[in-house]
Amino acid sequence: MLFAVLFLTSVLVSKSPAHNNSEPQKKEFSGGDFTLKSAAGPLSLQDLRGSVVLIFFGYTACPTVCPISLATIANVYTRMSPTELQGTRALFISLDPERDNLELLERYTKYFHPNIIGLTDEISALKNVAEKYGVKFKKTLVPDSTLGYVISHSSDIILVDRDGVLRMTIPHDTETDHLLKQLKLLL
């Protein structure tokens, strides 16, 4: 009986959307169009047709995964030609609309690279978009922290092709070279 419980637990954990492997995985979600708020006004995925889009869900107070992932995306961008760069956009979708207003998101994303656009909206809209892309997140209270709470969230970088079709997810801890290679395959 113990063996069965351990086996089922390992299978469930290995198939969890928040579980990261070192290789891109096929997920059971389809992505799709959405419209969220940016500092420049409403932005939909449809508006970016013709560009390869990288999507990352997180929040500005995230201590490690979010800044590392955005730095990886920025490193990829610095290694692209101007023509390649014109064909891409990255979206940082904040899962913390309580703290991440549009001005803060604009400053935060532009710190990493001008091609990264910060998006947010009401929590119901964010949940809808996250569900489309298989992103799980949860607000957890941390009473002894000055932040008061953290957002636990899936951490894959999502790649969407020029036609708006979700093509792959890549673990946040992937090497810059691998992400660059995958991105260039879609250009």
UniProtKB/TrEMBL annotation:
PROSITE patterns: THIOREDOXIN_2. Keywords: Copper. Residues 25-187 form the Thioredoxin domain. The keyword Transport does not apply. The keyword Transcription does not apply. Belongs to the SCO1/2 family. This is Thioredoxin domain-containing protein. It comes from marine metagenome. The lineage of its organism: unclassified sequences, metagenomes, ecological metagenomes.
